[in-house]
């Protein structure tokens, strides 16, 4: 894997446009993963690396696919990082967890980077018996933070629309494609993100070699589909 000296989003302050640009790029990455029925399972600031950062450009790369897996795989443990997990990850009766869990994690990342989430007042549970109560309180804090977003500004209004479609039960939650489409429709990407260069998508597909299920020949249609993603905004 290449070295990214600019580090990750963890502990990194972003401008509003950089945050929205990262939001869009993560969703496009999840859209491509969905083509192969693969979950990342651990979307968090530390796993989002900064490839390029200039006044006019902000490019990120999804990293750490160590616990990535197929939609149909059953896990014997509650994978991922507690603060960023979707509710269905804690549900032992859930038969299939799909890309909507990664979309939830992406929403938490965006809420944290753009509006702040005080994780220190919600220390991770030390035992399984504390987990359910802890997570219920954490979800309340997440939803409280979303409702507190200032809707008087255009960006605040648009981000609130996006996040309200993410922080709901899995059955009602948008998947990566619909979430990205919503951002295009309400003009979040066109008005509040930096321009994505024509070859940008190549920056985040470098991890493909680390996911065996994705090592297969792509046909021309799939390659064209990737290029056309940039025109969706």
From TrEMBL:
Task: List the Gene Ontology MF annotations in alphabetical order.
Answer: ATP binding; protein serine/threonine kinase activity
Entry keywords, A to Z: Kinase, Transferase
Q: Is Kinase included in the keywords of this UniProt record?
A: yes
Keyword Kinase on entry: yes
Q: Which Gene3D superfamilies match?
A: Transferase(Phosphotransferase) domain 1
SMART domains given for it?
Answer: S_TKc (SM00220)
InterPro entries in alphabetical order: Kinase-like_dom_sf, Prot_kinase_dom, Ser/Thr_kinase_AS, Ser_Thr_kinase
Question: Which residues belong to any copy of the Protein kinase domain?
Answer: 1-195
Q: What is this protein called in UniProt?
A: Serine/threonine-protein kinase 24
């Amino acid at each position: 894997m290449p070295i990214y000296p600019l580090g990750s989003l963890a502990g990194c302050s972003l401008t509003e446009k950089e945050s929205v640009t990262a939001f869009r790029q993560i969703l496009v990455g999840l859209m491509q993963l969905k083509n192969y029925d693969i979950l990342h399972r651990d979307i968090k600031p530390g796993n989002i690396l900064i490839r390029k950062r200039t006044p006019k450009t902000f490019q990120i790369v999804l990293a750490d696919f160590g616990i990535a897996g197929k939609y149909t795989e059953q896990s014997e443990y509650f994978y991922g990082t507690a603060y960023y997990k979707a509710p269905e990850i804690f549900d032992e009766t859930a038969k299939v967890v799909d890309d909507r869990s990664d979309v939830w994690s992406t929403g938490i990342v965006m809420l944290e980077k753009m509006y702040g989430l005080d994780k220190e007042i919600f220390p991770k549970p030390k035992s399984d018996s504390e987990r359910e109560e802890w997570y219920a309180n954490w979800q309340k804090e997440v939803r409280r933070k979303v409702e507190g977003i200032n809707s008087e500004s255009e960006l605040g209004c648009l981000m609130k629309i996006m996040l309200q479609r993410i922080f709901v039960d899995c059955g009602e939650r948008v998947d990566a494609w619909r979430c990205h489409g919503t951002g295009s429709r309400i003009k979040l990407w066109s008005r509040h993100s930096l321009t994505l260069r024509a070859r940008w998508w190549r920056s985040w597909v470098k991890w493909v070699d680390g996911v065996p299920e994705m090592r297969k020949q792509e046909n021309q249609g799939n390659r064209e589909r990737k290029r056309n993603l940039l025109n969706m905004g």
